[in-house]
Amino acid sequence: MSGDGQGTNHWFDDEAGPVVRPYAMTRGRTTSPAQHRLDLIAVVVTESDAGDPERDPTLAPEHVDIVGLCREPQSVAELAAELDLPIGVVRVLIGDLVHAELVHVTRPVPPAELPDESILRDVINGLRAL
After folding, report:
1. Are 102 and 58 a contacting pair, CB within 8 Å?
2. Rounded-to-integer distance, Cα 25 and Cα 19, Å
3. What is the pLDDT of residues 86-106, one digit of tens each?
4. Maximum alpha-carbon separation in the chain
């Protein structure tokens, strides 16, 4: 027992789990090369030739979980919720997997690149006139 009367488990919280875990999962990193593309609604999909990630000794269990979950397209937010991990940690882990070419990320089309609503209405009206 420590001198503060809290015992040796003072680094744990029943609700939050261990304090150091997210930091350890990312090896202290807070960003990854691919992170700039990882919006909350970006969709992550496992590459078709990813093989069996469990055989890769460089991957953490969380990496393997992400590859498994992304066999069906998942958003970054869905992955964080499913894995019960902070978004920042999930972004770093996904960045690792993108770098390893085990998953790819598709981004939603930014609103600035979508066609103007008036153009779409003109197309619809033109089609109706046919």
Report:
1. no
2. 12
3. 888 888 889 888 888 899 898
4. 85
Going by C-alpha positions, the residue among 100, 117, 111, 105 that lies closest to residue 74 is 105
Which amino acid is it at 94? I
pTM attached to this predicted model: 0.63
Angstrom distance (rounded) from CA 33 to CA 61: 21
**Structure token pair of residue 35:** 């992170």
- Cβ burial of 77 (10 Å; 0-12, 13-18, 19+) is middle
Residue 29: which pLDDT band, with cuts at 50, 70 and 90? low
Question: Mean pLDDT of all residues in the chain?
Answer: 77
Per residue, the 3-state secondary structure of 8-77, as one string, reads CCCCEECCCEECCHHHHHCCCCCCCCCHHHCCCCCEEEECCCCCCHHHCCCCCHHHHHHHHHCCCCEEHH
Average pLDDT over residues 29-53: 77
Closest CA to 89 of 62, 64, 70: 62
- If one compares 127 and 28, the residue with the highest pLDDT of the two is 127
